[in-house]
């Protein structure tokens, strides 16, 4: 049966957009188990949000569920997939095929979510021409031709920090307007270009902070030790 969705209201808040993949992941798991309907409470718990926030988010898609029944899993899955653009395939290029870029190229989860890794690029001569995940690594100098050749829609930057800004600038120059940056660097892009950042080291540092807070009683100085240390510092 072909699903026909109602018109989707525009102006979906960014915070809601960021949660839609969480709902889609939960719905996909439910569909794989053969679940036909799900309540807002159950879907919210599976997605890690509260039910009021979930209902508000889904209302932006024109989906309100049915009282006493909940949401139809297949229909809601289709609505969210359509809203975030997963009802079509997206060609993706990875720039920087070091350890991280190599791992991303070999990740099998992209294809099942509508993302096709179409091109790999690197500036290092020893990497150009090598084969990774069934693709030959191409030189960055060929970026413009590759973007046109493969109709690249999204670029992933996995370069060292010092190269990230120049790579992003080049991507913008050749018409890429959606960039996912894994490089541990702050980069700037012009208005109209969507930049998302994934900094693994920062996330680890945040976890370390919480671990330290959790074990703070064991790590913190006693009041007497703090006074003695202050005296020593003052000399």
UniProtKB/TrEMBL annotation:
Positions of the DNA-binding region: 22-61
Keywords, alphabetical: Cytoplasm, DNA-binding, NAD, Repressor, Transcription, Transcription regulation
Gene Ontology terms: biological process: negative regulation of DNA-templated transcription; response to redox state
GO cellular component, one term: cytoplasm
Coiled coil: none
Transmembrane segments: none
Binding site for NAD(+): 96-101
Molecular-function GO terms, alphabetical: DNA binding; DNA-binding transcription factor activity
Domain CoA-binding: 85-186
Pfam families named among the record's database cross-references: CoA_binding, Put_DNA-bind_N
Subcellular location: Cytoplasm
HAMAP family assigned to the protein according to its UniProt record, in alphabetical order: Rex (MF_01131)
Xref: NCBIfam families: PRK05472.1-3, PRK05472.2-1, PRK05472.2-2, PRK05472.2-3, PRK05472.2-4, PRK05472.2-5
Physiological role: Modulates transcription in response to changes in cellular NADH/NAD(+) redox state.
Family: Belongs to the transcriptional regulatory Rex family.
Protein name: Redox-sensing transcriptional repressor Rex
Organism: Phytoactinopolyspora halophila
Lineage of producing organism: Bacteria, Bacillati, Actinomycetota, Actinomycetes, Jiangellales
């Amino acid at each position: 049966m072909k699903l026909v969705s109602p018109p989707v209201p525009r102006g979906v808040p960014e915070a809601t957009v960021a949660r839609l993949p969480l709902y889609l992941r939960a719905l996909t798991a439910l569909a794989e188990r053969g679940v036909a309907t799900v309540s807002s409470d159950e879907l919210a718990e599976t997605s890690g949000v509260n039910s009021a926030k979930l209902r508000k988010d889904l209302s932006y898609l024109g989906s309100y569920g049915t009282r006493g029944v909940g949401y139809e899993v297949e229909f809601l899955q289709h609505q969210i997939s359509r809203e975030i653009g997963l009802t079509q395939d997206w060609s993706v290029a990875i720039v920087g095929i070091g350890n991280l870029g190599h791992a991303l190229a070999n990740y099998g989860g992209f294809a099942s979510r509508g993302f096709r890794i179409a091109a790999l690029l690197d500036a290092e001569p020893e990497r150009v021409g090598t084969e990774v995940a069934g693709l030959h690594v191409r030189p960055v100098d060929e970026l413009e031709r590759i973007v046109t050749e493969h109709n690249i829609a999204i670029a992933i930057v996995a370069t060292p920090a010092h190269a990230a800004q120049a790579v992003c600038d080049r991507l913008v120059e050749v018409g890429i307007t959606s960039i996912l940056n894994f490089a541990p660097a702050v980069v700037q892009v012009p208005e109209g270009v969507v930049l998302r950042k994934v900094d693994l080291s920062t996330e680890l540092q945040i976890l370390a902070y919480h671990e330290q807070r959790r074990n703070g009683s064991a790590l913190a100085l006693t009041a007497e030790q703090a006074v003695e240390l202050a005296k020593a510092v003052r000399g």
